[in-house]
Write a structure and sequence with these properties.
Elongation Factor Tu (Ef-tu), domain 3, Arc Repressor Mutant, subunit A, Rossmann fold, 620 residues, alpha+beta, six-stranded mixed sheet, 30 strands, 18 helices, eight-stranded antiparallel sheet
Length: 620
Amino acid sequence: MIIGTAGHVDHGKSALVTALTGRLMDRLAEERRRGITIDLNFAPLELEPGVMAGIVDVPGHEDFVRTMVAGASGVDVALLVVAADEGIMPQTREHLLVLEQLRIPAGIAVLTKADAVDPEWLELVQAEVAEWLARSSVPFGVPVVTSARTGLGVAGLRAQLVGVAHALQDRGADDLFRLPVDRVFTVAGTGTVVTGTAISGSVAVGDAVTLLPSGREARVRSIESYAAPLERSVPGARTAVALSGVERDDIARGDVLVRAAEPWQATSRIDAELMLGRGAPAALADRSRVRVHHGTAEVMARVRLDAPLQPGKDAVARLTLEAPLVARGDDRLVLRSYSPMTVIGGGRILDPLPETRRRTPAGLASSDPAARLEALVERRRLGLELRLLPVLLGVPPGACDVLVRSSTTLVAAGELLVRRAEVERLADQLAREVEAFHRREPHDAGMSVETLRQSLRVPDALAAAALAGAEKSGRLRSRAGVVAAPTFRPVARASEEDQRRLVAAVRDAGLAAPAVAELAEQLGVREALSGLQLAAARGEVVLLEQGRYLSPEALQGFAALVREVGAAGEITPAALRDRTGLSRKFLIPLLEWADRSGVTYREGEGRRLRTPRPGAARGA
């Protein structure tokens, strides 16, 4: 569990943390000289045996709000500190707005310096704070009265924190790993170390990692959490990761540490549901320049809005970033005005990797991941990469798989997720393309598969899905790499007699059938290619490779021979050459046909038998 402090400057946040942990929090000489916190400070807190928490102590001064927001990232429970002798102050209100925009799941209001006021005043301040916080979206209970000097209320506060810890849901380790960096330093004998709250997932010693947005690669040398060494990090805990292969000056607060194998991407634009705080001084206009706080990073951005956003209202907007961020769907962000620098609102990220065109389908801002998935795919006519789903939706990969399987309107096309209606539309387009081809070329058996797919100008996986759909529905049929309408019968260029002679020559040649050009010369048939294409469409011959056809009987015999050789172990060209007498010129295309047909699969330099599938030996 991560505990964060919040509140006005000099209201006793650091003293409260010291009372809870026994640790002095102001580590910098400048902090000790000035008597205020100016940077993030951290301390472990053992709430009870086996229940460990980390405390993030943030600065309260208005000059360091950006640092406060960075520290609030990943917090599970916030201690909103109000000094009893001063009450609610400007930064108290600003910090509460930050907590609300980050949707901190739980809050505890803490009245400090209770020993500095009389009981009547303390009662008035407690009532005022309780009434104020009752309107907050962050759930707060009755303010806890404390004194760091006398120890008043500290034990009760600890007991409340124990209750929050027990009620907190565990963050699953089966998620993508992400650690926004809030500190980086060098340790003698260890090297470069980054720290932060592991927001999701886990990383292990030895893992390859990447620092984004720079893209610098490194490897995990060691991991610590609350001074204990770990082989694998724990999600939701304060974590220090020692890295090899990267220097301290290569990293800064705001960078994000991720596992190299995972699909995180830096982004220069974000679509988000923004909310302008009720206390904002003015409406937010289109193209306004704002400061975006996300994780531990702060970047400048331009807001694109369809209409001015009024205080207390929300709207879907695009943020065009002046520096890249590493964001995830459903992440929270905080907005500050460009000048003067005050917190004005925040929002929720709806699409961290949007396409250039702005569209807002119904469901994009839904709280239901299934509805958001539908909308995200609808925004991408050419499909959404399946591997990006955990990043776009903000849910673990396993949950993404369940959403995809349960959808009735979406379908996987290779590595893409697309709308079923789009696949059907493209299938119709293919059928029309083939019909037009038949009208232009009545002598050809049909269009080549590759030419037909390329006519769509869509990713190969989507074109393949559309063609498969057209075949399944009976609108098209394909054989030997040629696609035609089911009822189409080509007008032969070659005579029936020439076609019969070509097929006979291929059958008689067995596995060593000559190329089409050689057959044309041997038999004196000018339209040999057209004749063999028609024969292939009727199933009388099979296209082995470009310009060469074999008979189905020859291929069946070769498949039987391959299975016989493969039953004894590895299948090599040398072993088949000894059995068939064929040179590599003929053997290699045959072995590639066996791979395509599901008879064999490659393993190193040789091949192994694959469980046969129906029709494999016929080249179907």
